[in-house]
Design brief:
By secondary structure, the protein is an alpha/beta fold. It folds into 2 domains: about 140 residues, 3-Layer(aba) Sandwich (Rossmann fold); about 70 residues, Winged helix-like DNA-binding domain superfamily/Winged helix DNA-binding domain (Arc Repressor Mutant, subunit A, Orthogonal Bundle). The protein is about 50% helix and about 10% strand. Strands 2-1-3-4-5 form a 5-stranded parallel sheet, with helices on both faces. α3 runs parallel beside α4. It is globular. It holds the Pfam family Response_reg. This is DNA-binding response regulator. One of its GO terms (biological process) is phosphorelay signal transduction system. Keywords: DNA-binding, Phosphoprotein, Transcription, Transcription regulation.
């Protein structure tokens, strides 16, 4: 099955480079290009891409606002957003995840990393595996913004989880794959997948990235400070 990709970046040169890279893959195709967030939202509704590569800084409606509009639209539940960022704007990482992004990727990443990110997001997984990325997310979630009124609600929702689902959620927040969690908890990967899916349904999470945010915001997991 071909992965449909929408490119959203205000720099035409970057969009062209991404298009050449994506279209060179036999299992991917670019279905649209947007130069700002508002256009990205419109094209997402028209073209129904599997993955949106979203620049975070664009004129008018920025990437964060566009991501939030896409993630809150029930008709676009199968559209996964990957935020493109740079090391200079790392403070946007947690905002990206809270807005509903499936993950984020540095613009300086290797082509293979970008292609892998698209496939991971299209599969419904989160781009949270690299150690540096996990540490970055934990650091910003620890700082918080102090005005997110969703945290108490999410903490209350944790009461709906079984003990095993809580254990699995803690492991997911640590960035572990289903296979790794299965080994740690001495269960099958299929069992882990079932617990993850049930936790997502009970907590209203779109994907694993949102599970990680909920785990930190609710206080179930406390980030380590190195």
């Amino acid at each position: 099955m071909t992965i449909r990709v929408l490119l959203a970046d205000d720099q035409a040169l970057l969009r062209s480079a991404f298009r050449v890279l994506v279209d060179s893959e036999p299992d991917m195709e670019v279905v649209g290009e947007a130069s700002d967030g508002a256009q990205a939202v419109l094209l997402a509704k028209e073209r129904r891409p599997d993955v949106v590569l979203m620049d975070i800084r664009m004129p008018g409606t920025d990437g964060l606002a566009a991501t939030r509009l896409i993630s809150e639209d029930a008709d676009l539940a199968q559209v996964h957003v990957v935020i493109l960022t740079t090391f200079e704007v790392d403070d946007y990482v947690v905002q990206s995840l809270r807005a509903g992004a499936s993950g984020f990727l540095g613009k300086g990443s290797e082509p293979e990393e970008l292609l892998s990110a698209i496939r991971i997001a299209a599969g419904g997984d989160a781009l949270l595996s690299p150690t540096a990325t996990k540490g970055l997310i934990a650091r910003f979630l620890a700082q918080g913004d102090g005005d997110d009124d969703r945290a108490p609600l999410r903490a209350e929702r944790l009461g709906a989880l079984t003990g095993r689902e809580r254990e699995v959620l803690v492991q997911v927040a640590g960035g572990h794959s289903n296979d790794e969690i299965a080994e740690r908890l001495a269960v099958s990967p299929l069992t882990v997948k079932t617990h993850v899916n049930r936790a997502m349904a009970k907590l209203g999470a779109r994907d694993r990235a949102q599970l990680v945010v909920i785990a930190y915001e609710s206080g179930l997991v406390r980030p380590r400070v190195d």
